[in-house]
């Protein structure tokens, strides 16, 4: 069985070798996410505990935790188990080192681990460590201290772990929602702009980061724009090129057709005639996605991502059959500080985020099912066209090393009315 197979691999690791254990741990996280079984992870956790290596392993594994996916962070919490102090000690040490060199900023991974750790246990078992953690969190910028205060209040309760090794993986219902990281996952990814067209096609097929058609098309668009505007070597795309890359997209394991209301969305303002109609469902077919427009228009998206902003969306999740709450069902995305130049977008899930708002939130709506893009409205000859404006692969604009280029992009942003942020929401994972 799976335990025997993975147990043999685990037994092959002799001694507390971090690199070997990390390989096994990452593989276990991958299996847990894609095969929906924790058997392998249980084997690896037993191995780490047998070697009495949990704290040392987590100290190294959580260095630069912002690189970790949600499933990897879940695996960390499962490894820690009731020994929540292992995670708290690692994070406290790293955050303490951070404030000696610069202003303290928490990554989405830091927040996710702290929000999903039972800090009540830490407070009861090691009050000194607990106090050290919040002494460090007092150094947060004013905008984030409210988050730290909520975390402190939460530590007064003995909260049951959100993830349990003994829990069976079952489809979630409204009563079984598993908290996930609320940062929108598709923004500011990195890609190699020096790839040839053929290499780009191969990369799209093999990429573990791309999760849907829009993200693949955004990669094509951003690769082309970067080569033209930054590297000054324009790429001339023919219809044959488009056929090649479109066929590559259709071969990918994540390929699912988009909702019909995106049939007129064009690939970019550069390729004005290229709609994405071949990637959408027919009019009467159901899609596993829904496209949701922001209620507010926006003519300068990058300028907005430098400010404290809320974006409001009307959306009733299919799981919500009847709702008698005041206002409309929906959700709010807000910008939050990050380590880069632009701000991240985060799904608001707390009641206080919806005070004095005309919409209310249901916890069935989850950030990991969201893909944020920008719908760019521009003049196209005698008519107005709606074009896909990439947000997924802009790590280079997000980096502080590209301030001048980012400022140039912002100064050139002059979109028409009706331009707005949109969310492509995946329905079938709820």
Question: Could you please describe the fold and organization of this structure?
Answer:
By secondary structure, this protein is α+β, with helices and mostly antiparallel strands. The chain has helices at 2-11, 18-35, 39-50, 54-61, 70-80, 85-99, 108-115, 119-125, 127-137, 142-154, 197-206, 213-229, 239-251, 301-304, 395-398, 403-412, and strands at 289-293, 310-314, 328-336, 344-347, 359-360, 370-380, 383-389, 420-426. Strands 1-8-6-7 form a four-stranded antiparallel sheet. Helix 1 runs parallel beside helix 3 and helix 2 runs antiparallel to helix 3 (39-50). The model is unreliable at 161-180 (pLDDT under 50).
Could you outline the blueprint of secondary structure elements for this entry?
Layout: H1 2-11, H2 18-35, H3 39-50, H4 54-61, H5 70-80, H6 85-99, H7 108-115, H8 119-125, H9 127-137, H10 142-154, H11 197-206, H12 213-229, H13 239-251, E1 289-293, H14 301-304, E2 310-314, E3 328-336, E4 344-347, E5 359-360, E6 370-380, E7 383-389, H15 395-398, H16 403-412, E8 420-426
Parallel strand pairs: 3-5
Antiparallel strand pairs: 1-8, 2-3, 3-4, 6-7, 6-8
């Amino acid at each position: 069985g799976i335990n025997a197979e993975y147990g043999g691999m685990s037994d092959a690791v002799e001694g507390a070798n971090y690199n070997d254990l990390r390989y096994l741990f990452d593989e276990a996280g991958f299996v847990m996410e894609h095969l929906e079984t924790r058997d392998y992870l249980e084997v690896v956790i037993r191995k780490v505990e047998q070697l009495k290596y949990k704290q040392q392993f987590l100290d190294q594994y959580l260095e630069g935790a912002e690189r970790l996916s949600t499933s990897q962070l879940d695996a960390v919490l499962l490894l820690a188990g009731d020994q929540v102090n292992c995670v708290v000690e690692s994070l406290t040490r790293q955050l303490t080192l951070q404030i000696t060199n610069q202003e303290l900023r928490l990554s989405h991974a830091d927040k996710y681990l702290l929000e999903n750790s039972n800090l009540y246990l830490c407070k009861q078992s090691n009050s000194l460590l607990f106090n050290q953690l919040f002494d460090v969190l007092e150094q947060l910028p004013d905008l984030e201290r409210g988050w730290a205060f909520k975390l402190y209040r939460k530590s007064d309760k003995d909260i049951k772990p959100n993830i349990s090794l003994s829990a069976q993986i079952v489809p979630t219902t409204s009563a079984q929602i598993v908290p996930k990281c609320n940062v929108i996952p598709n923004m500011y990814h990195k890609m190699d702009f020096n790839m040839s067209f053929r290499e780009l096609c191969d990369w799209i097929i093999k990429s573990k980061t791309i999760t849907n058609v829009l993200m693949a098309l955004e990669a094509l668009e951003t690769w082309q724009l970067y080569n033209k505007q930054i590297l000054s070597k324009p790429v001339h795309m023919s219809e044959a090129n488009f056929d090649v890359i479109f066929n590559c997209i259709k071969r990918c394991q994540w390929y699912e057709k988009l909702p019909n209301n995106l049939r007129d969305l064009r690939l970019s303002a550069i390729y004005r005639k290229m709609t994405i109609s071949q990637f959408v469902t027919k009019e009467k077919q159901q899609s596993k996605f829904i496209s949701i427009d922001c209620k507010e228009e926006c003519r300068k998206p990058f300028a907005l991502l430098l400010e404290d902003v809320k974006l409001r969306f009307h959306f009733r999740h299919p799981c919500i059959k009847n709702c008698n709450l005041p206002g409309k069902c929906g959700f709010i995305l807000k910008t939050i500080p990050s380590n880069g130049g632009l701000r991240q977008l985060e799904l608001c899930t707390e009641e206080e985020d919806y005070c004095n708002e005309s919409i209310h939130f249901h916890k069935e709506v989850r950030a990991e099912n969201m893909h944020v893009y920008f719908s760019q409205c521009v003049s196209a000859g005698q008519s107005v066209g709606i074009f896909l404006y990439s947000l997924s692969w802009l790590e280079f604009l997000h980096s502080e090393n590209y301030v001048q280029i980012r400022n140039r992009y912002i100064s050139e942003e002059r979109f028409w009315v009706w331009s707005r942020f949109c969310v492509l929401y995946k329905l079938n994972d709820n």
